[in-house]
Amino acid sequence: MHEIVTLQFGNQSNYLGTHFWNEQESYFTYSGDEESLVDHDIHFRPGVAADGTDTFTPRTVIYDLKDNFGTLRQTNALYEIQQDSAAQSGIWNAAPITLAPIAPIPQHEYQLSLDTGGTPPPLSSSSVRFWSDYNRVFYHPRSLVQLNVPTAHLAAPNPNQLSPFDRWDVGEDLFMSEDQEHELLDRDLRPFVEECDQMQGFQVITGADDAWAGFASKYLEGLRDEFGRKSVWVLGLEEARPAGREKRLQQIINTSRSFQTLASQASLYIPLSNIPSGISPSYLNLSSDSAWNTSALQAAAYESITLPSRLRSTNGPRGTMSDFEMQFTNEVNRNILEMEMTAKDPNTYTGPVTNGTTDHRMTNGIAEEDEAPKEPDTLDIRFSKSERGPNRQPHTFSRINVCRGTWSALPESSAQTIIQTYETPLLFNLPSSFPEIFKYPRHLPGEFGAGSELPVYTMQAPTNGLATQTALSSSTSVAHRIRGLAEIVGRVVGVEEREGLRSDLLRVGEEYVDGWDSGSDEDDD
After folding, report:
1. Which of these CATH numbers, 1.10.3470, 3.30.310, 3.40.50, 3.40.1000, describes 4-40+50-297?
2. In the chain, helix, strand, coil percent, each to 5?
3. Residue 498 and residue 489 in contact, taking contact as beta carbons nearer than 8 Å
4. CA–CA separation, 323 vs 231, rounded Å?
5. CA distances in angstroms from 524 to 375, 424, 482, listed in the order given
6. Domain edges within the chain
């Protein structure tokens, strides 16, 4: 079934993961005559609830600090009866993990409406307290792993200040402590893996510049030992909001170690900033102080670029995890990628039509002709951070585009750049849990400006989904990013670690030069 198992480490990762799973839930169809374009078996596992009803829950293991789960419990409407039943044999029927009691937290109105079948009230940045407040799916009890971390390791009262949990080594220590007591991979991950028939691999969502990066690095060590040949995609989330000098330097050091360690453990490593770099397009209405907002944008990009890996093969060629990896790492070692996207309101056009009906087939292919070789255009939302930028346009080695809806003038391969494009009419859904971060001008019928025949427009969110174009690229920009980090590491890291970290970064950066850059920074100064 080509299953993919997901690992989520940390609060920001779970904000993004919640949007991801809500989007998967929105693809379910409940009419016997209508088949979803998405193969739900890839990300969801069938099961049986305590009352005998069939269930479908995400193939995911979610790690977070206990206080970040909010009102989400290990037991829910599908599994709570099991608490009172006798333990049964088998890894899925074993007694749930015992959790320490927590003080009751009032349930969010959004969750109350979902429980009662009512219309959910609108969410806002101020009303969302936890990632569980806007969750729309049921999880198996084994998916939720709450970690009890000493108070001294929790975040500082002032978000600009450095806290112990901002340090890489604290995450490593937390993993080793928990693993020594519970053998985390055997307890949490193995049950999900052993029930898969033809597993594609793992997608790992983790913080890349805090303690969760250290936790993830130790976890991936064990994962590679146990499942070494499986694909492992790591999405490294980076904080881009302003911070105090000490905290910012610690984030840079952690990010450098993620490029050194997580990238070497991953089949593909995708750093993803929570705030886009450069000037944002006018249609993006993002509240940078809201994790609900920033994670929604990240999720829209990541969910869209990975869509080919879960589409039904009967609707056209599927782009598996290994297919993506071959695009970037065949005969080279360029597994660090940059992500970018653009989006538009699909109400301004009609989708592709075949024989009078919407064509639900997915197409992919590589253009072979090279009439006018040039670098592919940059999309208007970029998720890569830059410590320093080159004065000349970076060169793209390889790129994958995923287009949802109708797009014209797509880039083609050239002698210098290999481009593969996947196209599908399946739009990005906008469930009620998704914030209105995308807004487009729409004419108010019958409304005109005072004393003018010019129509009046208002900015509104799309109502029928979002057309997106998302790209993953391997380019010389990675070299410039890593060189910038290496320079900072050379100045601020202690002698014992400095040379090893700096030399590893420079070695990684050289993979993204290959004759397109002399390796000198003289042009960048």
Report:
1. 3.40.50
2. 35, 20, 45
3. yes
4. 10
5. 20, 40, 14
6. 4-40+50-297
Q: Where are the beta strands (DSSP E) in 315-392?
A: 338-344, 353-354, 357-358, 363-365, 381-382
- Structure pTM? 0.88
Is residue 267 within 8 Å of residue 232, measured between CB atoms? yes
18: tokens are 């919640």
Contacts of 244 (CB under 8 A, 6+ apart): 160, 161, 162
How far, in Å, CA of 84 to CA of 82, rounded? 5
- Burial degree of 129 (CB within 10 A; 0-12, 13-18, 19+): middle
Tokens, residue 459: 């900015």
Query: How many alpha carbons fall within 13 Å on the CB side of residue 463?
Result: 6
Helix (H) or strand (E) holding 26, with range, is helix 11-26
| Per-residue model confidence as pLDDT tens digits over 42-93 | 999 998 877 778 889 999 999 999 999 999 875 555 665 444 333 333 445 5
* Angle (CA) 239 245 248, round 5°: 20
Enter the DSSP assignment of 50: T
